[in-house]
Every structure is written in C-alpha cells, then in structure tokens.
Design a protein that fits this description.
Blueprint lengths: L1 H32 L80 E5 L3 E3 L2 E10 L5 E4 L3 E5 L9 E4 L14 E4 L4 E9 L13 E10 L2 E12 L3 E4 L3 E2 L2
Parallel strand pairs: 6-11
Antiparallel strand pairs: 1-3, 2-3, 3-8, 4-7, 5-9, 8-11, 8-12, 9-10
C-alpha cells in the first residue's frame, strides 16, 4: 500500500513531462530536416514533385492532364550535324547557286534554223492580206533574201493552181519593198505580205469556180514547211507577194 501510493504520485508528477517530450520529438525532426511537409492527394498518396528546368523560376509547374502528348524536342546535338555544318558546302560555306541552262526556244526549230509561221488574214471590202513570218530559231545568224517560195494547198493537201505574182498590184495599201539580203540574229524575224481579192466572175462554175486554199507550203533552204491558212482566192486565183523585209 505504501509503494502504491508513492508510485502513483511519482507517475502523476512525471506524466506531463512525458507527454511534452512525446509531442516535441516529431516537431524537432521536421525542423531539423529543413523540408516542408509534402502534400497528399485525396486518396492519401503523395503528390509527385516537379523540377524546374534550368534557367527558369523555381516554381513547379502543375502536372499535365492525362493523355497530353509529349512536345517534341528542338534541341540540336552536335554529333548529329554533318562535318561541314548546316550550309550546303564543306567547311560551312554558303552553297553556291548553279548556273541555269539557257531556256529552250519555243516550237520545233527545223534544220535550216528558220521557222515559218502565219497570221490570221485581214479582210476588208473583198481584200485579203496575210502576213507570214520567218524567225531565226537557231543559235547562229541566218541570211534571208528575195521573195518567199510558196505553194497553195487545197483541202486535200495537194497543190492548187494559183498565179503567184511578185509585187503588189491588187491594192495601194500594201507596199512591196525591193528585194534585199537580210541578216537575222537569233530570235529576230523577217515578214512578207500576201494580198488577194475574193472575186468570183462568170457563172462561178467550171473554169469560173472559186479557188480555196487551206494551207501554205513555203520552201526555205530547200526544205518545205507548211502552215495552215485559209485563202479564198475567188475565180481569178491570183496571189500577190512582197519580198521579205525586216519586221518592226
């Protein structure tokens, strides 16, 4: 009985000290570590920590929502570069542009280097005027002289009888320059004018039947070239032609 009373008194006196020590130990451990308590989720798990990238503020970024794709990296590593860097030539020099080849000329250039072409005839009061061109489509100078050597082809592509006259007599509106020798540089051209009247005489039948051409065959340096052209030459079937002259 004596020990029980004395022991109970000792326990009662020591109990406040023991309780204070029990509370102080966890707090001292937190203060000694220097770390703040980690947050926990509603399920009781710890929220994962985030580390700020170098050069940014120390404030952690919020975690990305689930399913967000990872952004690509734009970092360039030296070991992935070619030995000459990012330029087009070794040594890091800028790439030198290559000289472009000359553009081919339009159309098909014949062996003679001279290409024939025709235009749509001008028509007024029965008078027709057609211009034909001769272009130097080669890389060298070409020489042209005299009058065009031509034939009129019918709808069957066969020659038709036409009186080809050098000089202009059917109109005063077209002048015939004197035949001369012309030198063409690459890309230059000369022209000649063809003039006629669509006149139908007599009955318009038999020998008076009008002559119609569908193309011109022009010979240049011994080689013939054909260009489409509508020539309603009438009953007279006469065609006036100028000499070649320099185009404006």
């Amino acid at each position: 009985m004596g020990w029980g009373t004395a022991g109970a008194r000792a326990v009662r006196r020591a109990l406040p000290v023991l309780l204070a020590a029990a509370v102080a130990l966890p707090l001292a451990g937190c203060r000694g570590s220097g770390e703040a308590p980690r947050a926990r989720t509603a399920a009781g798990g710890a929220v994962p920590e985030t580390t700020a990238a170098p050069g940014t503020s120390g404030t952690p970024s919020p975690p990305a929502p689930a399913g967000t794709p990872t952004p690509p990296s734009f970092l360039v590593h030296a070991e992935t570069l070619p030995p000459w860097g990012l330029s087009g030539e070794p040594g890091g020099r800028p790439a030198t542009p290559r000289a472009s080849s000359p553009a081919p000329r339009g159309g098909i250039c014949p062996v003679s280097g001279l290409l024939v072409s025709g235009e749509v005839p001008d028509a007024a009061m029965g008078l027709r005027v057609l211009t034909v061109s001769l272009t130097d489509c080669s890389e060298d100078d070409r020489v042209v002289s005299g009058y065009p050597q031509l034939e009129v082809l019918g709808t069957d592509h066969r020659p038709v009888h036409v009186d080809v006259h050098h000089g202009i007599t059917v109109t005063d509106a077209v002048d015939d320059p004197a035949p001369t020798t012309l030198r063409l540089h690459p890309g230059e051209r000369v022209v000649a004018a063809l003039a006629w009247r669509n006149l139908v005489t007599g009955t318009g039948e038999g020998t008076d039947a009008p002559v119609v051409g569908s193309a011109l065959r022009i010979t240049v340096d011994g080689a013939a070239q054909t260009v489409p052209a509508t020539l309603d030459l009438g009953s007279a079937a006469r065609l006036d032609v100028t000499a070649w002259y320099q185009a404006d």
